Amino acid sequence: MKQIIQDLKKGDTILEEVPVPSVKAGAVLIKTTRTLVSLGTERSLVEFGKANFIQKAKQQPDKVKMVLDKVKTDGLKPTIDSVFNKLNQPLPIGYCNVGEVVAVGKGVTEFSIGDRVASNGNHAEYVLVPKNLVAKIPDTVTDDEAAFTVIGSIGLQGIRLLNPTFGETIVVVGLGLIGLVTAELLKANGCKVIGFDYDADKVAIAKAKGITAINPAEGTDQVKFVESFTNGVGADGVIITASNKSNEIISQSAKMSRKRGRVVLVGVIGLDISRADFYEKEISFQVSCSYGPGRYDEQYEQKGNDYPIGFVRWTEKRNFEAILNAIDNGSLDVKPLITEHISIKDYLKIYGDMGNSKSIASLLVYDSTESPVKTVNVTQKSFKGQKGVLGIIGAGNFTSATMMPQLKKMNANVKYIASSGGLSSTTMAKRYGVANSTSDYQEILKDEETDLVIITTKHNSHAKFVMETLKAGKSVFVEKPLALNNEELDQIIAVYNENKGALSVGFNRRFAPLAKNMKKLLGNDNTPKNIIATMNAGFIPKQVWVHDMEVGGGRIIGEACHYIDLCTYFADSKVVAVCMNAMGTNPDESTDNASILLKYENGTNAVVNYFSNGSKAYSKERLEVYSQERTLVMDNWRTLKTYGFKGGNSKSKQDKGHYNQFNELINQQKNGGAPIIPFDVIVNTTKASFAAIESLKQGKWIEV
Questions:
Q1: pLDDT band at 75; cut points 50, 70, 90
Q2: How far is the C-alpha of 444 from the C-alpha of 461, rounded, in Å?
Q3: pTM, whole model, 2 decimals?
Q4: N or C: at which end does the chain have fewer Cβ atoms within 10 angstroms?
Q5: Nearest partner of 534 among 598, 626, 639, 623, judged by Cα
Q6: What pLDDT sits at residue 47?
Q7: Banded pLDDT at 607 (limits 50, 70, 90)
Q8: Do the beta carbons of residue 474 and residue 390 sit within 8 Å?
Q9: Are the C-beta atoms of 185 and 206 separated by less than 8 Å?
């Protein structure tokens, strides 16, 4: 299928050929008939992509600070690589989609195949959209009209926050697409509406709809006009739908408001607010968030958990439905806003020169008769007779930033890369010369030429993919964690014992050059040691998926397991008991500030400190090993200081062992498929991470 994307590095707007998304639980697959181009929002993305690096930096000063902090901790080259990796990830654009449901995911009961629907899907021939971001279209509403659903909801949410009453005077600043819809909805609400815009064509459209529309370029003073229109009272409310960097708009909005008036920002403007403008009149100011309640809430959008209507009357989905009903009953007429219809194949007629476009609303038309495909051939390659042929399931940031650069260095034979949406895998396949991009991972499992499957998806899918891969008779490498609970782990053990494939987990630290050096210095005498491992992991907001115990498993299971394995590597023994204590008076199982005490069979004692409340200026990782009146201190995988050992200290580039790990993995696969870490050690480490969480719950040592 074809999809429009924005290349943030080169600045090109591209019509890309990508696999059709795979259907997920809680979502519907839609075959697109129309999408609406939002010139304001999309123009800013296109212009950002075309900007040079200095211009991009000026537009995002907060990101520049993050980059500078990363340079201090990780070094210049890793930081530059990380920045370029982000810019190499194209952005799908568009969010006003209309089409027909062609597949329904598990758990979706309100939609059926054949339903006409509006959603916030991208500019693509097929889109997969969660059910709470989809609304049915009334029979009398055309696809052209329904394409305004999401845009209309943005304006409607601004109105809901303003809470206008019948007869009030409301000013709409900016009569672009959202502004025109907002003004008409306000008029339907019984308000007296004043609209301001510097575009004569937009002012004319507003006047035709019965709105008092003014072009300030003709000499009208906006504040004085509102005062005159309201007999000196001022506007009851102001909705700003303009896009302008000037601070004058917010100042004028306050000055034209009555005492205790309301100002709601829907657009993007300068916000250097003068206290005096708002103070004397006690004006309230609020920023509107997109389509309404539920936006950016993963529980609502991705997991499909609706807000009870008795407590949240208007969610984003219910706003979608309200706009469609307004079009249906004639209180919102969007037909005069349509400037042009363009085939998606001719998309550059819109995106080629967006900066000079005078269009109000451009509609992209989709009329492809091609059968949807789930696998796209990117590079012609033959893998016949080769060993160590790889397939990768997962095309997220870790795959792009860490795994693929290492595999490229090794000239690894990667035949497939899979992502559920198809876009990220296609982009990565083109960038790294991978033969095929697919949205159906089963293609990898069915291919007899594929020997090894690498899994880098979200944590809650690891166990499922591991077991399916082993059952398909292939070896598997899965990023940590192997599983999220003991039940999943037991199932994996059973499948592993029944099948021939090797299994490896991404505990990469034991493969780092400095870790290998430490192991060599310590020797193999199996004497007990004291180990202190500290991960200054950094703060991650609670709403991020890694904290969700059902999806990410929390940072102890998902990340601290790296250091449990590393301690096991140096102890050369198995964990027999675990005790974990977390910071705070009432920590929960998703804690990311905790100390884990590990007891080993051979008497080794290890402490893993996993902290997220430390300074970014301090080293991310530090390891101390005490043994036989000798001490090793590793700092951030760069330096190793030795005390009591013969020979001097050593240094390394910041190397966490990914290259060595993948090199050993592929070499083992070519030579028979043996795991690079013994399976029983992997199981022991995984159980130890589960035991840490259980120890926190019960407040005592837990045997492994």
A1: low
A2: 16
A3: 0.88
A4: C
A5: 623
A6: 65
A7: very high
A8: no
A9: no
CB 109 within 8 A of CB 100: no
Q: Are strands 436-438 and 413-418 parallel, antiparallel or unpaired?
A: parallel
Place of tokens 């991404």: 506
**Mean pLDDT, to the nearest integer, of 425-440?**
95
pLDDT of 73 strictly over 90: no
Strand 192-196 relative to strand 235-240, pairing? unpaired
CA distance 199 to 222: 15
Q: Cβ contacts of residue 448 below 8 Å, gap of 6+? A: none
Q: What one-letter code names the amino acid at 68? A: L
Which uninterrupted H or E stretch holds 122? none
pLDDT score of 680 = 95
pLDDT digits (tens, 9 = 90+) for 93-140: 999 999 999 999 999 999 999 999 999 999 999 999 999 999 999 999
Point out which residues pair with 28 in neighbouring strands. 104, 129
Given a contact cutoff of 8 angstroms between Cβ atoms, the answer to whether 73 and 637 are in contact is no
pLDDT, tens digit, 9 for 90 and up, residues 237-249: 999 999 888 899 9
The amino acid sitting at 120 is N
What are the pLDDT digits (tens) for 341-381? 999 999 999 998 877 777 889 999 998 777 889 999 999 88
Q: Is 552 exposed, middle or buried (0-12, 13-18, 19+ CB in 10 A)?
A: buried
Distances (CA, A) of 493 to 470, 575, 702: 11, 18, 21
Q: Scan for tokens 């100011």, then name that residue.
A: 285
DSSP string of 159-190?
Answer: HHHH---TT-EEEEE--SHHHHHHHHHHHHTT
Report the distance separating Cα 221 and Cα 261, nearest Å.
Answer: 20
CA pair distance 500, 473, nearest whole angstrom: 6
Burial 83-97 (b: 16+ CB within 10 A, else e): bebeebbbebbbbbb
Model pLDDT, residue 49: 60
Cα–Cα distance measured from residue 467 to residue 167, given in angstroms and rounded to the nearest whole number: 64
Give me 15's structure tokens. Answer: 């019509």
In the structure, what pLDDT confidence band is assigned to residue 90 with cuts at 50, 70 and 90? confident
Per-residue tokens: 224: 């004085």
CA dihedral 241, 242, 246, 252 (to 10 degrees): -60
251 HSE (CA, 13 A, CB side)? 9
Q: What is the pLDDT of residue 17?
A: 93
Determine if the peptide bond prior to 308 is cis (ω within 30°): no
For 105, 541, 543, 555, 556, the CA distances from 548, given in Å and listed in that order, are 22, 11, 8, 9, 12
**What H or E segment, with its residue span, contains residue 75?**
none
Side chain identity at residue 622, one-letter code = R
Question: Read out DSSP for 216-260?
Answer: GGGT--HHHHHHHHTTTS-EEEEEE--EE--SHHHHHHHHTEEEE
Separation in Å, CA 474 to CA 228, 378, 403: 78, 24, 20
Chain-centre distance for alpha carbon 318:
24
pLDDT at 369: 79
Q: Render pLDDT for 324-333 as a digit per residue (tens, 0 to 9).
A: 999 999 999 9
Q: How far apart are the first and last CA of the chain?
A: 50
Mean pLDDT of 467-495: 96
CA gap 362, 421 in Å, rounded: 26
- Which of 531, 631, 615 has its CA nearest to residue 572? 531
**Can you give the three-state secondary structure of 404-453, one letter per residue?**
HHHHHHCCCEEEEEECCCCHHHHHHHHHHCCCEEECCCHHHHHCCCCCEE
Q: Read off the pLDDT of residues 550-583 as tens digits, 9 standing for 90 and up.
A: 999 999 999 999 999 999 999 999 999 999 999 9
Tokens at 404, concatenated: 């693929």
